[in-house]
């Protein structure tokens, strides 16, 4: 994701933020914010909201949930989320890519304009471009996020850590690091492929092969640090907020049942 974001800048340790602020301005860090919000609201409501229910459905017994059941639940909810919300991801990637263009008129003036132009110029298939590789990518990310968080949290609780904010923070931060390591392999390919002009790559596998042969294996980890900053902070905010909301809703439910 962050691979196109870094072209022309020094690395994180050598003042990347100061380089970026000087050339692009602080507002550019939020380029594509509306499209990003549309994507997260669509994806998260399905993949996170349904995870616990699907996990229980895959469990042979209510109190026995295996790693395989968790992985299946993560893949199932993510595949459903991508199928429903893929157009929001295409628009988000296009918006972030056009923010790097200089001396060229912007292709899209807003998210609605982007949806309409893509549908008109590329057909409805254009809005679902890269759906299969995105399902693969997001299933990997979803599993590494949700399943890793699930397992790390369970391990912390077995070590007598209280199920509270510090526990949620530690589990979310570690899950974010694991997610970045796993997701970077497919994240760069996804961004390259979804943002490529028609005909440049035959498919996602062809994009991966050309990337590997022309730029080497390290190309798959371009932008690792900004990706970790993004995924790490995202995981902390997401899981901590989710846990607090879940706890609040459970308290409301109990109070209603007791009254």
TrEMBL record:
Q: Where in the cell is it found?
A: Membrane
Task: Supply the Gene3D superfamilies for this chain.
Answer: Mitochondrial carrier domain (1.50.40.10)
On whether Flavoprotein is a keyword of this UniProt record, the answer is no
For the keyword Chaperone, the answer is no
Q: Give the record's keywords alphabetically.
A: Membrane, Repeat, Transmembrane, Transmembrane helix, Transport
- Solcar repeat boundaries on the chain: 1-57, 65-155, 163-248
The domain of life for this entry's organism is: Eukaryota
Per UniProt, what is the membrane topology?
Answer: Multi-pass membrane protein
Q: What InterPro entries does its record include?
A: MCP, MCP_dom_sf, MCP_transmembrane, Mito_Metabolite_Transporter
Q: Which GO terms describe its biological process?
A: transmembrane transport
Q: Which PROSITE patterns does this UniProt record tie to the protein?
A: SOLCAR
Q: What is this protein called?
A: Mitochondrial brown fat uncoupling protein 1
Family membership: Belongs to the mitochondrial carrier (TC 2.A.29) family.
Entry's Gene Ontology cellular component terms: membrane
């Amino acid at each position: 994701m962050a691979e196109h974001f870094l072209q022309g800048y020094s690395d994180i340790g050598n003042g990347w933020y100061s380089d970026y602020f000087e050339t692009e301005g602080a507002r550019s860090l939020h380029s594509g914010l509306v499209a990003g919000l549309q994507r997260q609201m669509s994806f998260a409501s399905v993949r996170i909201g349904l995870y616990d229910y699907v996990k229980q459905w895959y469990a042979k017994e209510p109190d026995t949930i295996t790693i395989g059941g968790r992985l299946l639940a993560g893949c199932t909810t993510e595949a459903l989320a991508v199928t429903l919300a893929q157009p929001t991801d295409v628009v988000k990637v296009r918006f972030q890519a056009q923010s790097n263009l200089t001396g060229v008129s912007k292709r899209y003036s807003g998210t609605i304009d982007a949806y309409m132009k893509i549908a008109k110029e590329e057909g409805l298939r254009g809005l679902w471009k890269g759906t299969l590789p995105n399902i693969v990518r997001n299933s990997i990310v979803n599993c590494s996020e949700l399943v890793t968080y699930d397992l790390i949290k369970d391990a912390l609780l077995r070590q007598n850590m209280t199920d509270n904010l510090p526990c949620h923070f530690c589990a979310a931060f570690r899950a974010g690091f694991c997610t970045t390591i796993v997701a970077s392999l497919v994240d760069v390919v996804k961004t390259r492929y979804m943002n490529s002009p028609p005909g440049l790559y035959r498919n996602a596998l062809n994009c991966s092969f050309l990337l590997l042969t022309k730029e080497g294996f390290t190309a798959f980890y371009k932008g690792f640090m900004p990706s970790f900053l993004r995924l790490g902070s995202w995981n902390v905010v997401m899981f901590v907020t989710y846990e607090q909301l879940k706890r609040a809703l459970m308290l409301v439910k109990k109070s209603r049942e007791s009254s």
